[in-house]
Predict the 3D structure of the following.
Amino acid sequence: MDSSVAITLEAGVSLGAMPIYRFGTAEQRRRWLPELCTGERLAAFGLTEPGGGSDIPGGMRTTARLEEGQGKKAEWVVDGSKSFITNSGTAITSLVTVLAITGRGEDGRKEISSIIVPNGTEGFVPGPEYSKVGWCASDTRELSFTGCRVPEENLLGERGRGYAQFLRILTEGRVAIAALATGLAQGCVDECVRYAGQREAFGRPSASTRRSSSPWPTWRCGCTRPGWPGTTPRPG
C-alpha cells in the first residue's frame, strides 16, 4: 500500500491552501486560492526544521526581519532552513507558507509569524527530493532561505500569531490523516485476505486453515469521533 497520492492531496489542501483560506487577506485569497482549489497548483507548509518539528517555540531557528527594500517599500528578509516539507518543489508548486521568528516580546519569548514565499523567489532554494522508504511519489524536500526577500504584505494573518495559526491548521489536518490511515489499514487487510486465498500451505489455501479463516477475513477498518452524526463503531 502506498499513500503518496493521498498525502499529496491532503497536504495540498489542509497545509497548503487552508492557511490562505483561514488567515489570508482578500487579496491573498484572490491571488492564490483559485488555482489551489482547482488543483492546478500546490502549496506547502514550512514548519519542520532540521533541529525541531512540532516544538515550534523551542526548536525554531528560521528568522524574518523587516527591511527597507526597493522603492522605499518594506520587505521581509527570510533566512533559515526547513526540512521534510511536502509539495514544496514540484513543477506546479506556487508557494510555501513559512513560519519564522519575526522578533521578541517584552518577556523575551519568540514572536512567530507566517510569511508567504512564492516559489522562484530569489534566495529560496528547494533541495533535491528525499530518498524515502515509502511514499516515494510524494514530493518531500529540505528548503533553504538565504536573504530571501518578499513584500511586507506577504505576512499571513496577524504578526506574532503564526504559532496559534498553525496549531489550528495541524489540528484540522489530523482528521484527514486519520482517514488516510484508515484507508491504508483497510487496504492492507484486503491485500492480506486476497493473498491468503491464493497461497497454499500443507496442500490447501492458507485461508482455509483454522487460524486464518476467522475472524480476520471479515475485518473492516473505520474511524469515528464522538459527536459526529451518523457515525457508529464498526464491529471487528
Strands lie at 42-46, 63-68, 74-86, 93-104, 110-118, 124-129, 140-151, 155-156, 200-201, 204-205. The chain has five helices and ten strands. Residues 162-198 form the longest helix (37 residues).
